[in-house]
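pls ignore typos typing on phone
NAP + seq
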Amino acid sequence: MAKVLVIGCGGVASVAIRKCCMHSDVFTELCIASRTLSKCDALKAKLTGKTKTKITTAQVDADKPEEVIALIQKVKPDLVMNIALPYQDLAIMDACLACGVNYLDTANYEPENTDDPAWRETYEKRCREEGFSAYFDYTWQWAYNDKYKKAGLTALLGSGFDPGVTQVFCAYAQKHLFDTIETIDILDCNGGDHGYPFATNFNPEINLREVSAPGSYWENGKWVEVPAMSIRRTYHFDGVGEKDMYLLHHEEIESLAKNIKGVKRIRFFMTFGQSYLTHMKCLENVGMLSTTPVEFEGKEIVPIQFLKALLPDPASLGPRTVGKTNIGCIFTGVKDGKRKTAYIYNVCDHQECYREVESQAISYTTGVPAMIGAMMLVTGKWNKKGVYTPEEFDPDPFMQALNENGLPWKVVEDPALVE
Ligand SMILES: NC(=O)c1ccc[n+]([C@@H]2O[C@H](COP(=O)([O-])OP(=O)(O)OC[C@H]3O[C@@H](n4cnc5c(N)ncnc54)[C@H](OP(=O)(O)O)[C@@H]3O)[C@@H](O)[C@H]2O)c1
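k done
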C-alpha cells in the first residue's frame, strides 16, 4: 500500500523499520537511507526473508537538502520518516516540501552549531520573549505550517514516546476523561540497568544536551526556568519501584501549552541515578559537553562529539539492559463538575524488547510510535494538511495501535500526585 523512505539507521530507526516490516500489508516498500550505508545494508540483510516488505538501501547526507531531494525523486515515497538527528529536521522538511511528500520525525529541530551567529540571534530573541533557554523549540518547524498547508502536505512532528505518545495520552484524557485538564505531569522513568558506569540510552550528544540544559515548566501562561536538575521529586513507579526524578525542559510542554485549552501547569520529570548525574556533572565541569570546537594537536574537534565516540553506542545496550521503563502522564482537572485525577502510562521491559527486535526499551518505546505515526498517516487515519504535533489528531486509533504493537497502556484513577 505505501512506500516509505526512512532516513537514519540508528537505535530508534532500527526498531521503527523492524516494526514496519511486521506490517507488510501497510508498508509494502521501505528504503532505508543513512549516512553510513553499511548499517542500512546490515539491517536489510537481517530482515530479508523474514518480511514481505520490499527493502532497498541508500546512502545520504541529510544535512544537504539537495541530496535528500535527489533521493526522494529516485525512491518516490509516500512518506519520509526522519529518524536521523534533530539537526537534519529542517533540511528534510525542505526536501519533502520541494518534492510534495509527507514528513514525520521524532524530535524537534535543534542546530548542530549553536555558535552560528544567525541562529544565535533568533535564539536569544526567543529566550527573551518566551523565557526558556533550551536549544530546541518548535518555532522553526511551526514556521513551515502555511507552506505545508498550501502544498496539501502533512508534517507530523515528534512521533516518539516523549514527545509523541505522551501527547496522545493528553489528547485521550481530553477526549474521554476530563472536561478541563488543569495540570499535566509527564513522568519518564527508566528503571533499566545496562551495567556500565555511564552510558546514554539514545544518541549521547542529543541526550546530554537535553539533560544539561536548564529545567523549565509552564505555569499560568508563562515559562518558569530553573537551574538544571534543581527540582527533585521521588515517585513510586508501577513495575519499577521508587525512583528520584528531576524536572527538565521538554519539547512537548511547548505544544501542549498551546493545544490543551485551559491547562494551568505542565511539568516534565525524568529519573536519573546518582552515577549518571555525577558523571554528567564531571563531564560538564571539564568542558566535555561543549559544542564549541577546540583545536587539539592541529585538528579541530567538538568535545561532545569526541565524547560520543568514547561512550557505548546506545544501539549496543540491548543485550545487557535489564529492568523496565514506565512513561506516562498524571492529570488533574474537572469532569462533570467534579474534580478528578488520572494517570495514563505504559510499562515496557528492556529484555522483552530485546527478544522481539534486538533493542533496549528506550529505542523500542520511540521506534514503535514512529511506526504507528507513519501508519496513521499512510492509512489516512490522521489526515490534516499542515504541520502538527500528535495531540492535534484523534487519539483513539493511535491508542489502539499502541495496545496492538507492544506498548499497552493503563488508566489509573486517583494516582499518587507529584508535589
Ligand atoms: N521522541 C522520543 O521519545 C525520542 C526518544 C529518543 C530519541 N529520539 C530521537 O530519535 C532520533 C534518533 O535517535 P537514535 O538514538 O536512534 O540516534 P542514533 O543511534 O545516533 O542514530 C542516528 C542515525 O542518524 C544517522 N545520521 C546522523 N546524521 C546524519 C546525516 N547527516 N545524514 C544521514 N543520516 C544521518 C546516523 O548515521 P551514522 O550511523 O552514520 O551515524 C544514525 O544512523 C533522534 O532525533 C533522537 O532525538 C526521540
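The radius of gyration is 20 Å. The pocket of NAP is lined by residues 7-13, 34-36, 39, 60-63, 83-86, 88, 106-107, 158, 160-164, 202-203, 206, 314-315, 366 (CB under 6 Å). more later
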